[in-house]
Each structure stands twice: as C-alpha cells, then as structure tokens.
Amino acid sequence: MKIGVPKEIKQQENRVSLLPSAAYQLKKRGHQVLVEQGAGVGSGYPDADYEHAGATMIPTHAGVFEEADMIVKVKEPLPEEYPLLRPKQLLFTYLHLAANRTLTDALAKSGAICIAYETIEINHRLPLLEPMSEIAGRMSVFVGGNLLSKHHGGAGVLLGGVPGVLPGKVVVLGGGTSGVNAARMATGVGADVTILEVDLERMRFLDITMHTHTLFSSEAHLVSLLPTVDLLIGAVLVPGARAPKLITREMLKQMRPGSVLVDIAVDQGGCAETTRPTTHHDPTYIEEGVTHYCVANMPGAYARTATQALTNVTGRYVEMLADLGLKEAIGRQPALLGGINLYEGKITCQAVAEAHGMEFHDPRTLLAA
User: Fold this and answer.
1) Architecture in CATH of 2-126+302-368
2) pLDDT tens digits for 301-328?
3) What's 132-296's CATH class?
4) 96 is known as an active-site residue
C-alpha cells in the first residue's frame, strides 16, 4: 500500500503523523511511504531522517494525496484539502466531526473512507485520543497559571500560593484522561483542586488515588464553586459527540474578573456557551471578565513530545490497515469499526449523525456490501 504523510497546514500545527521509525517499519513490511517535504521539520525530524528510513519524499502537498492509497494525518482536513481527497481513499486522522458540519459534508462529498482516531474505543477507553488528552490536560495548568498573572490580564493569583497565603482554586469539569492529568499537574504545584464528575465509581478511584476533592457534577454544585474559582478547566468528553454546554454565559458572570477558563473540549464544540476556537498565535479572548483559552490543537505547542506520543499508539493501526486492508483489519481489531465516521459518502458514526440531523448508516452493512 502507498501511505501518504502530508505536512499539516492548520495554523501553527507542527506535529507530523508518522515518525521516521514508523516509516522504516512500514517500508520493511513492503509498503511505500510518501512523505511531503518538510512534513516533520516542526517536530524536529528533517527530511533526511525520512529518506534514511526509506521513505519517498514528495515535493508538493497535492502530490501526496494524489499518489497515496491511505492518507495519515494529525488534524482534520482544511478546506483547501477537501478537493484532494478521492473516492475510496482511506483517511486516518483526528476528525471531531460532531462540531463541524462543513467538514462532514465535504468528506461525504469526497467519497473517502474516513477513520477518526478519537472514536476507536477499546474497553471503554479511547487509546488513540488518550496521549493527546494527557498532554492537553497537563498543559492546561501551565497555560492557566500563566494567564492568571497580572501582566497577562489575570487576577494575579499564584496557583500554589506561598506560606501564609492560600493556594489558588482549580475546578476541573470531568474526571477522564484530560481531567485527571490537569488535576495531577494542579495538585503538583500546590493548588486547591476539585474535580466534578458524574461517574461514582470514577470518583471513588479519584478519591483513593489523588489528593483532590471530588464533587458530583451538577449545575447547582458548579454554580456554588464559580464565585471562588481561579482556574476553570473544561475536560468533558462524550466520544464522537458534541461536548455538552455545562457553562452558560450567566454562570460565567459569577466568576471573578481576571479568572481563567481553559476549555480542552473545544475540538468537540466546547463545554461553555462562550467558547469559540482560537489558535496558538492568538490564543485568548475575554468574555464577562474571564480570560478564555480555547486553542483547538493544544498539543501542537509541544510538537515533538506529541508526535512521539501519537505515533506510539497509531503506528500499529497504520501497519494493520496497510497490511490487511480495512475489512481484514477490522476482523483483527474490531474496534476499528467504531473509528469509521464516513464510508464512501455515508455517515457511519451514530453520534455524528445525531449531531447534524443526518442519516446514519451501519458500517457493517456497508462493508458487507
């Protein structure tokens, strides 16, 4: 199979979808790896590393799409990439379609088979999303703590406090992977941390393993915390679906001026009514006196670490798809079936179909046909 690795063109996205070591393994297995020139530079992997691994360097972005049977990316295609996809071509990347009807329509029109990292689920875990959730969760505390400084327009609160001064208060919405990693970092710097969660077993686990407060997630409980919170981290995830809007504008008004909201869930539409996607170049805005940080590709800031973490989990799926093709790969790893969001123009992810009011098609039926 010909596997294409285009350079990411999303603003300030420096990750790359395959390491040179992954290209080497694919080459050994008899596949051809087509890498766009400069694709790995932002992550610290020059073209020479890919050439040494046996990859074929392609000078143009369009050339990779034109020649490859499978396109492996990090982020969703952007409008200039829509016409480059073709019917039956495999696309393997993060998609987050529930929050983007335009992208959903474009991918349906392309006729490509689109497999999303974030909807491959094994034993109630999302193994291809977890590494990026870990990075975003840990990063949220670095970012939020910095934005609380006075010179960034914050309230001037040091999250860890000092002897004789109480630490800052951090509230994390969601006790999943990103929420737990945010809470770990916040407790590590000495902040007073509360995690809101709905799963009682998860709360018991968090209570035993972490030095944080846990509170059942309800609007009343959240409203009671907002007047004193310094850093609010949105880490809510419903696999494949839009994030629930847990924070209304009216609720936001209860927060103190200079406090900070970091919405990790922005890829899925965000968990605040006031959330809108931002970029690393222009990451923040202020609504109701609260600084919002809503960068849609947070892990891209730490591109080398993120690339290594991503390919640690995606590499074997790329190998499986290349070695066996989609149908046989699903036979080997049934979880891949849940990753198919579109199949030759038809929506095959229930959550995406519901988000956009579109018709859902069972991927099993389409594959059988």
Assistant:
1) 3-Layer(aba) Sandwich (3.40)
2) 999 999 999 999 999 999 999 999 999 9
3) alpha beta
4) yes
